[in-house]
Request: fold
Amino acid sequence: MKKQNIHSSSISGFARVLLLIVLCGSLGSLMAQDSTAPAPVVKKKSFVKNTFEGNFLIDNQTVMVPIKGTFEFDIQHRFGTVNNGFKDLFGVFATANTRIGFSYTFMKDVQFGFGAINDRMQVDWNLKIALLKQTKDGKMPVSVTYYGNALMDTRAKDATSLFVSTGDRFSFFNQIIIARKVSESFSVQVAPSLSHFNNLEGYLDANGEVQPKWNNNHFAIAFSGRYKISPKTAIIVNYDQPLTQHPTNNPHPNISFGMEFKSSGHDFEVFASNYGYVLQQNNNLYNQNDFTKGQFLIGFNISRLWNF
Reply:
């Protein structure tokens, strides 16, 4: 009887050890299953596309930056004002301003460009950076882009009395562009800007002393919009308001409107505007065309894009 009890006790102890092993194995299996569980799915941000069709909206830049590897060739042309009628065929035979420009998006959301203008033999270098992008879920309601340029007057020194040093030839433009695509057809943007001129023309007062015609810094704000009437055609409008008051020759505001036509590789705009220059700082400071007096001109922008 005594031996039988010892044997039963041994079996009972063995059963407990076996049960412990099974439980440990089950726990290890559960832990292994937990460690291999799929990670939670992170939803990728989806951005609004084609807020505008290209880089330009009449006299201003848009919030758009082309995709990485895009090379762009631009022609911007402004005829003379139309108020002389048939004397110069509504400005077609008048003095015109033309800019030829090139730009390249060398990295994501960053574009660099160069241009040359017949007006005062000016050349410019420009930079455009997309800072924020509107999202489809509305968490980011607008797109924000920085645009800036440096403009140089390359005329010979004896052609003007403005150039004492090389720095006198330069002006600069800085702008923050804030845009929203309201619907598939309608987009709007607002763009405050600061223009700076290193040296500006003055005038002689009654005492024979030189007085400034303008301040070196000029603030302005631009409002722009586009409404698509078909997949490739849109109505475009723009309004520019100067904010800085100057000693003389305060610039007039600009109002412009036109049509935009888009193809797979081209963007073409034709419009009426009272801005006669091409680069923004020149238009913002020097504009003396008054739209209330019918001093409009015809202009166009042509862009051709290649992707590499």
Q: What stands out?
A: Residues 122 and 153 are 5 Å apart (CA to CA).
